[in-house]
Design brief:
Elements (H helix, E strand, L loop, with lengths): L10 H34 L18 E6 L6 E7 L6 E2 L2 E6 L13 H10 L3 E5 L18 H15 L4 E7 L1 H12 L3 E7 L5 H13 L3 H14 L10 H4 L7 E7 L7 H10 L3 E6 L7 H4 L1 H15 L4 E2 L5
Parallel strand pairs: 4-5, 4-6, 6-7, 7-8, 8-9
Antiparallel strand pairs: 1-2, 2-5, 3-10
Helix pairs in contact: 1-6, 3-4, 5-6
Length: 322
C-alpha cells in the first residue's frame, strides 16, 4: 500500500517566502549598484604615477611647460623638446599622448628614447600629461572624453606659443584613440599615428568586462549603465574613434597593433582601418599591449618617421648659419 505525502504550504509561509525573495533581490541590486559606482570611481581615479626621468637623462634639451585646458582651465604640464638638428630650421612637431594610468614618461616603452630619435631626425616633440596624470591637475580620468580637450589645448600651445604649424600626433591606447578623434576634428593636424587604440569605447568596455572581472556579461552591461548614469563625465558612447576615422581623407592615419595584445584586440584597429578612406595598418606579431616599440625599436622608428615625413612639409635648410 503506497502512502502519499502532501506538502502543504500555509499562506503565511508563502508570504514570508515572497518577502524574503524580494528582499534578497533588492539586496543583490544594491550590492551590484554599489559595486558599479565603486568600479566607475576606480576607473576614473587611477593612481597618479610620478615622473622618474627627465629628458636630460637622454642628453636632450627641454623646456618645462605649463598650459591650461582651453575649455575648463585644468592646469596641464609637459615638456617641449626642440629638434636637435642645427643644419635646418623645422616646422615639424609631434605631440605624444600617453596611455591610461600612465604619464608622459612612465609607460611600458621608453617614450624619451623615441623622442630623442625624432628630435635627431628634425622633429620638435611635445610630451604632456593628460588630466589626473603625472604632474597635471584634474581629479578624474574620462578615458578620452575630456582628454580630447587636453590634446586640443596641447595643439593650441604648440601652434600659438611655438609658432609651429606642421603637427603630427602619436598616441598609445587611450592616447591613440584620443589622437584619432582630435586629428579628425583639428585642421592643424596633418597626420596621426595610433598605437593599440580601441575603436568604440562603449562596445569595448562591455565586451572586455568579463575578461577583466570574470563576471557574466549581463552583469557587466548593468554595471556599465549604472556607472555612466552616476558619473556624467564617464560618457562611453561619446568616444568612437572608428567614426572619426571616416573623416581621414586628406590627412594620414597610421595604425599599429600587436596580435598578442591581451588588453585591446588588434581587431579594434582593423575596425578603424576599415572605416577610414586613407589609412595604413601595421599588425605586429611581437609584444603585447603598447609594447611594439619595446620589441622592435629600429623598425618602429623608421616606419613612423617615414610616415610623418610623408605628411608633414619639408624643412628649410640653413646655409652658413643664415
Amino acid at each position: 500500500m503506497k502512502m502519499r505525502v502532501l506538502l502543504v504550504i500555509k499562506p503565511k509561509h508563502v508570504k514570508t517566502l515572497i518577502i524574503n525573495s524580494v528582499l534578497l533581490l533588492l539586496f543583490i541590486i544594491i550590492v551590484i549598484t554599489g559595486a558599479s559606482v565603486y568600479v566607475g570611481y576606480k576607473i576614473m581615479s587611477p593612481i597618479k604615477l610620478a615622473i622618474m626621468n627627465l629628458p636630460t637623462a637622454y642628453e636632450m634639451e627641454y623646456e618645462d611647460v605649463t598650459f591650461s585646458n582651453v575649455h575648463d582651465g585644468v592646469e596641464l604640464k609637459g615638456w617641449w623638446i626642440p629638434s636637435s638638428r642645427k643644419d635646418f630650421t623645422t616646422q615639424k612637431a609631434v605631440i605624444f599622448s600617453h596611455s591610461y594610468g600612465d604619464n608622459r614618461e612612465r609607460m611600458p616603452i621608453e617614450t624619451l628614447k623615441l623622442a630623442k630619435r625624432l628630435s635627431t631626425e628634425g622633429f620638435h616633440v611635445f610630451m604632456y600629461d593628460f588630466r589626473n596624470s603625472g604632474e597635471s591637475g584634474g581629479k578624474l580620468t574620462t578615458i578620452g572624453l575630456k582628454e580630447k580637450s587636453d590634446l586640443l589645448s596641447a595643439i593650441h600651445y604648440v601652434k600659438e606659443e611655438k609658432d609651429i604649424h606642421e603637427i603630427g600626433l602619436l598616441g598609445w591606447s587611450m592616447g591613440a584613440s584620443t589622437s584619432i578623434i582630435v586629428g579628425s576634428e583639428s585642421d592643424d593636424i596633418r597626420a596621426v599615428i595610433a598605437d593599440s587604440p580601441f575603436a568604440d569605447l562603449e562596445t569595448y568596455s562591455r565586451q572586455s568586462f568579463s575578461y577583466w572581472t570574470g563576471l557574466p556579461s549581463l552583469v557587466g552591461d548593468y554595471m556599465v549603465n549604472i556607472a555612466e548614469n552616476v558619473f556624467i563625465d564617464l560618457n562611453l558612447s561619446g568616444v568612437k574613434p572608428y567614426v572619426a576615422a571616416r573623416l581621414y581623407e586628406d590627412k594620414g592615419l597610421m595604425l599599429i597593433h600587436s596580435t598578442k595584445d591581451g588588453a585591446i584586440s588588434y581587431k579594434q584597429s582593423e575596425m578603424i582601418y576599415d572605416n577610414s578612406p586613407n589609412a595604413e595598418i601595421w599588425i605586429t606579431k611581437k609584444g603585447g599591449h603598447i609594447r611594439n616599440y619595446k620589441h622592435q625599436k629600429e623598425k618602429y622608428e623608421e616606419r613612423i618617421i617615414e610616415f610623418l615625413n610623408k605628411y608633414l612639409q619639408s624643412d628649410k635648410i640653413v646655409f652658413n648659419g643664415i
